[in-house]
Amino acid sequence: MELNSYQQEALDYQKPNIEKYNNTQVWETKEEWNEQFYIPLFTKTMNGLKKGGWYCINIPIEIYENICVPLWGTSDKKIPLNISSRLKDGTYKEYIYCFRKGW
Length: 103
Hints:
The protein has helices spanning 5-13, 30-47, 61-72, and strands spanning 54-59, 77-80, 95-100. By secondary structure, the protein is α+β, with helices and mostly antiparallel strands. The chain has a domain at 36-103. The protein has a three-stranded antiparallel β-sheet with strand order 1-3-2, covered by helices on one side. Helix 2 (30-47) crosses helix 3. The N and C termini lie far apart (53 Å).
């Protein structure tokens, strides 16, 4: 079975990030990527907000569920993006998740 470019992109996301750029850290697994990149990034940016501020981020559902929900709980707002489905069966969805920093 041959995959179209959208199906291949969806499958590629499931692989660990092994992209290499000049002077950047390389993570071999998703767990390393999450612990050493996403969690510190999201935590530092949220900490920089004033109380009552909004942290809104467009990320894949997997990152929302595995990183954001454990850090802050479910989002206060979930805005669906009106995009054409990347997969022909219509299963791909994207959201902007918004978290309100405590008062």
